[in-house]
Amino acid sequence: MSDIIKTDICIIGAGSGGLSVAAGAVQMGADVVLIEKGKMGGDCLNTGCVPSKALLAAAHAAENARTAFQFGVDTGPVAIDFPRAMDHVHSVIAGIAPHDSVERFEKLGCRVIEAKAHFTGPNEVIADGKRIHAKRFVIATGSRAAVPPIDGIDAVPYFTNETIFKNRICPDHLLIIGGGPIGLEMAQAHQQLGAKVTVIEMATILPKDDPDLVAVVRDMIESSGISLYEKIKTKRVETHDDQIRVIIEHNGADITIEGSHLLIATGRKPTVDDLGLDAAGVTYSARGINVDKRLRTSNSKIFAIGDVTGGLQFTHMAGYDAGIVIRNALFRLPAKIDYKAVPWVTYTNPELAQVGLSETAAREKFGDAIRVVTWQYAENDRARAEARTKGFIKIVTTTRGKILGAGIVGHQAGELIGLWSLAISQKMKIGATAGMIAPYPTLGELSKRVAGAWYTPSLFSEKTRKIVRFLLKFG
């Protein structure tokens, strides 16, 4: 332990947040040590966002082929080569990996240590036999799959998001416990690639999203043939004749569901174990590391960002947090987090995207002093041309037009939500969107039309008609 490294910033965790801090800090002139015990790129690149979206792309391609007949294109029976679909997944990971690699960050000027990190005091970390002393530390260790204490779970083979992308055999019947974004995305991906799928959720699917938007996703999920059980209790799991059984309590009776494979998708928990946080004077719990608005821990020289803080678990949040830390740690600016305009997307077909307050949250905060306007995909010419008419956009404002939240369910909802994130972050009113010029025909017109609908009651009111008739009297 004689090797001592002194540095400006030491970052623990090379996922999206840690890499963003490292790249930004070193290119701004700071001396940076980056420590990662697993794979560079973290969960997002290796077991999360990237592989899941790549698998969904393969699945949607298969579904598009099946439904091409509606455009006069006959493809015949669709043949699925599941191993080749997984090859696509891993080729996408491999294509992105060099951007997150040890080699790239060493070329940038970072010192990368591939080992487990452990605090031994408030300003020292040990990794690979080296003692790192830093002016500032950043904990970016992310989160990992949370497995609930279901009776029998330890005796049954199961996937989590961390292992399912290693599977190269299409399940005959995939059982999924958990109806959040991961569970539903993997349900649809596997169903479209040929598996029978059952989803089991103890509450309702996508519980953090607007129920009106979720209803559209639920309808598409069920109409595709996926079996969906909501508001039920999973009592136990077991194996029987090489099959997996999940015993649930449904409407007061026990039901046994049998399948070939099991995926646990019941959320994630922050990675706070074995970091020596007590020695560092960092306050934490099973929910994550406690941070203030500047992302400082109880030890003001140690910051924490991303999933490990127990907040919003999105890759783009870790990147946003990285910017807050750089301004605080390098420039001594009192930058504070502001999460009111954070968008999130569930990448099912149709996609579901939200930003800001939902209608329910807005009513809880403002009572009846809000307005809600919607516009259907079926009223959009581009959606009609592409036979993508399922879904709608919903905007929530104050009675004076300040935008509080937006929700979209439908084709490319994730691409459309960014405009509303910008509008909320810049404190724009609904008139700004209503007055923009949207190219025709595009899905982007949905945003302009729903904003225009906000003005419909007043614009076409009897009062307006009287004013127009009066003015027309003068020629």
TrEMBL record:
All copies of domain FAD/NAD(P)-binding, residue ranges: 8-320
Q: Which cofactor names does the annotation list?
A: FAD
Instruction: Extract the PROSITE patterns matched here.
Output: PYRIDINE_REDOX_1 (PS00076)
Pfam families registered for this protein in UniProt: Pyr_redox_2, Pyr_redox_dim
User: Keywords assigned by UniProt?
Assistant: Disulfide bond, FAD, Flavoprotein, NADP, Oxidoreductase, Redox-active center
Domain Pyridine nucleotide-disulphide oxidoreductase dimerisation residues, every copy = 342-446
Read off the InterPro entries from this record: FAD/NAD-bd_sf, FAD/NAD-binding_dom, FAD/NAD-linked_Rdtase_dimer_sf, Pyr_nuc-diS_OxRdtase, Pyr_nucl-diS_OxRdtase_dimer, Pyr_OxRdtase_I_AS
Q: What PANTHER family does the annotation carry?
A: MERCURIC REDUCTASE, PYRIDINE NUCLEOTIDE-DISULFIDE OXIDOREDUCTASE RCLA-RELATED
Q: Which family does it belong to?
A: Belongs to the class-I pyridine nucleotide-disulfide oxidoreductase family.
Name listed for the protein in its UniProt record: Dihydrolipoamide dehydrogenase
